[in-house]
């Protein structure tokens, strides 16, 4: 039990940090809604996986990946903004998910997370992929900055806007897939959006915003889990509410 | 010779946006590209930079580093990026986070070339159009280019700043010996600052010294009959000199 609790803190911290770091560019690219909505595209995958009897995480990843590829393809063929296309996929996925949803415990877990009861193998996968997201986001940091500042600017610097956009959405997919295990689909958006949004309220430079977002992402997970443990409440919602507290704090600091 | 462009054509979505354009540029030239809206001026710059596929020949006689100052581009003015950070995007992977004093000095030096040294700590979104344009000119100088491409360098800024930006371009050309190609729609600027002019309207319309090739007939052909005002203006100036 002790070991499990320790492990879930490590997983939570890695996921919190990676979500916040990647989230900076999701927020700056005005993909916040897309990030949140995209996480629901995983639902039918989870439903099917539960029906067939395979790991819901695998089902979610397959559906998310297929979803992202389809969204990018449709963006190429239409003039619709990307969040509108994600919206179409989001509502469709929810409808399919609702039809498929067996009232199973596993599906509930996918929606609300199971961080304190996480299995060792899922914890290690979560930590590994979380670190991969952190490393790749730092590696692509300058590309993502140019992309999210202005696609025209990125292009004039000889950067491929399409491949940077693809990389960003792909990392978001991986992030969502691991996040599902930790705080659940419904609350994952908060981990990606709230820390960068709070950081942007206070920070003037991109470096400050990055450091603030990552710190908030990290602290909120730890504080949220400690509070949940003491008060005997669900950790997922507690993590989100701690993030919200930071967001409110950022609004107060901004005013003064 | 510095750059030789021969029979350059560019197709976008199946249609030719530029067709059979040829000209050459000498080292140290200030060359203006003029033409009506949609004539393919920006596309021509993009082709020179190698950003888009083209037919024909673009031949560089020596290895050239190109700096590019784009036409106004849209960006979110609340974006948290300082001028210094913008410049650091051009440096190595680590230096964005751990910049050396030498790099910060280089940035200050580039900014001082365009007289905006004091802006390095400002956010990009807080700058006025004129300041932004100067920052981007400094940014293009930061890569130590041999050739600077300016796409309508003064679009959207007031006339006073406009004149000083062109003065600045001439200074950069004289003092740093950088070849300059600029897109402009202001013919008085072309007369005043450029030693060669390329007129295009999808196809090549003229190429040569402004005073020789920008005849009233040529301008009428390029812009249509409504060009009267400009033509008259410069016709007079030409007569006096």
Summarize the SSE layout with pairings.
The complex is a heterodimer of chains A (256) and B (241).
Chain A: H1 2-28, H2 32-40, H3 42-52, H4 56-77, H5 82-100, H6 105-112, H7 120-139, H8 141-149, H9 151-156, H10 161-182, H11 185-202, H12 206-231, H13 235-255
Chain B: E1 3-12, E2 15-25, E3 30-34, H1 41-49, E4 55-60, E5 66-69, H2 83-88, H3 101-113, H4 129-142, E6 147-151, H5 159-176, E7 179-183, H6 187-193, E8 196-201, E9 203-208, H7 210-213, H8 216-223, H9 228-240
Parallel strand pairs in B: 3-7, 3-8, 5-6, 6-7
Antiparallel strand pairs in B: 1-2, 1-4, 8-9
Unreliably modeled segments of chain B? 229-241
Radius of gyration of chain A: 18 Å
Task: Give the CATH topology of the largest domain in chain B.
Answer: Rossmann fold
Q: Uncertain regions of chain A: pLDDT < 50 for 5+ in a row?
A: none
Please identify, by name, the CATH architecture of chain A.
Orthogonal Bundle
Count of domain modules of chain B: 2
Summarize the helix and strand pattern of chain B as letters: EEEHEEHHHEHEHEEHHH
Question: Gist?
Answer:
Chain A has 256 residues and is mainly alpha-helical. In chain A, 85% of the residues lie in helices and 0% in strands. In chain A, α1 packs parallel to α7, α4 packs antiparallel against α5 (82-100) and α11 (185-202) crosses α12.
What can you see in these coordinates?
The complex is a heterodimer of chains A (256) and B (241). Chain A is globular. In chain A, α1 (2-28) crosses α11 (185-202), α3 (42-52) packs parallel to α5 and α10 crosses α11 (185-202). Chain A has a single domain, classed as ABC transporter involved in vitamin B12 uptake, BtuC, CATH 1.10.3470. Chain A contains 13 helices and no strands. Chain A has helices at residues 2-28, 32-40, 42-52, 56-77, 82-100, 105-112, 120-139, 141-149, 151-156, 161-182, 185-202, 206-231, 235-255. With 256 residues, chain A is an all-alpha fold. The mean pLDDT of chain A is 84. With 241 residues, chain B is of the alpha/beta class. Chain B has two domains: 1-64 and 146-214, Rossmann fold (3-Layer(aba) Sandwich), CATH 3.40.50; 76-143, no CATH class. In chain B, 38% of the residues lie in helices and 24% in strands. Chain B is built from nine helices and nine strands. Chain B has helices at 41-49, 83-88, 101-113, 129-142, 159-176, 187-193, 210-213, 216-223, 228-240, and strands at residues 3-12, 15-25, 30-34, 55-60, 66-69, 147-151, 179-183, 196-201, 203-208. In chain B, the strands form two sheets. Chain B has a six-stranded mixed β-sheet with strand order 5-6-7-3-8-9, sandwiched between helices. In chain B, strands 2-1-4 form a three-stranded antiparallel β-sheet, with helices on one face. In chain B, a hairpin with a 2-residue loop joins β1 and β2 (15-25). The longest helix of chain B has 18 residues, at 159-176. The two termini of chain B are 30 Å apart.
């Amino acid at each position: 039990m002790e070991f499990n609790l320790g492990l879930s803190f490590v997983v939570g911290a890695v996921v919190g940090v990676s979500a916040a770091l990647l989230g900076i560019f999701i927020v700056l690219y005005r993909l916040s809604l897309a990030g949140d909505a995209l996480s629901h595209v995983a639902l039918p995958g989870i439903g099917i996986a539960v029906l067939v009897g395979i790991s819901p995480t695998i089902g979610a990843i397959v559906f998310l990946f297929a979803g992202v590829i389809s969204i990018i393809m449709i963006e190429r063929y239409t003039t619709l903004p990307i969040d509108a296309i994600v919206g179409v996929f989001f509502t469709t996925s929810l409808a399919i998910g609702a039809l498929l949803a067996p009232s199973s415990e596993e599906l509930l877990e996918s929606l609300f997370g199971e961080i304190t009861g996480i299995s060792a193998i899922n914890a290690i996968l979560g930590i590994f992929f979380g670190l991969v997201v952190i490393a790749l986001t730092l590696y692509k940091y300058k590309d993502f900055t140019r992309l999210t500042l202005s696609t025209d600017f990125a292009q004039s610097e000889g950067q491929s806007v399409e491949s940077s956009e693809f990389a960003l959405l792909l990392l978001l997919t991986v992030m969502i897939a691991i996040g599902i295990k930790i705080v659940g689909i419904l609350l994952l958006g908060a981990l990606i959006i709230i820390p960068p949004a709070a950081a942007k309220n206070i920070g003037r430079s991109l470096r400050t915003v990055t450091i603030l977002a990552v710190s908030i992402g990290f602290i909120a997970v730890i504080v949220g889990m400690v509070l949940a443990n003491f008060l005997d409440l669900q950790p997922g919602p507690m993590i989100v509410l701690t993030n919200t507290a930071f967001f409110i704090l950022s609004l107060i600091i901004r005013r003064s | 010779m510095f750059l030789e462009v021969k029979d350059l054509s560019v197709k976008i979505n199946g249609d030719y946006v530029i067709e059979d354009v040829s000209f050459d540029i000498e080292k140290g030239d200030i060359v203006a590209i003029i033409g009506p809206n949609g004539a393919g001026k920006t596309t021509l710059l993009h082709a020179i930079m190698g950003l888009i596929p083209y037919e024909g020949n673009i031949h560089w006689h020596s290895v050239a580093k190109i700096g590019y100052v784009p036409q106004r581009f849209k960006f979110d003015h609340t974006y948290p990026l300082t001028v210094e950070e913008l410049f650091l995007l051009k440096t190595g992977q680590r230096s964005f986070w751990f910049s050396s004093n030498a790099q910060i000095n280089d940035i200050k030096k580039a900014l001082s070339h365009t007289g905006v040294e004091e802006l390095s700590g400002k956010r990009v979104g807080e700058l006025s159009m004129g300041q932004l344009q100067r920052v981007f000119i400094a940014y293009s100088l930061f890569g130590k280019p041999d050739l600077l491409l300016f796409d309508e360098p003064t679009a959207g800024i007031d006339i006073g700043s406009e004149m000083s930006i062109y003065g600045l371009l001439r200074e950069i050309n004289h003092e740093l010996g950088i070849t300059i190609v600029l897109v402009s729609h202001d013919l008085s600027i072309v007369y005043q600052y450029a030693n060669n002019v390329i007129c295009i309207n999808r196809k090549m319309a003229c190429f040569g010294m402004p005073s020789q090739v920008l005849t009233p007939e040529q301008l009428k052909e390029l812009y249509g009959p409504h060009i009267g005002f400009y033509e008259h203006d410069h016709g007079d100036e030409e007569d006096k000199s």
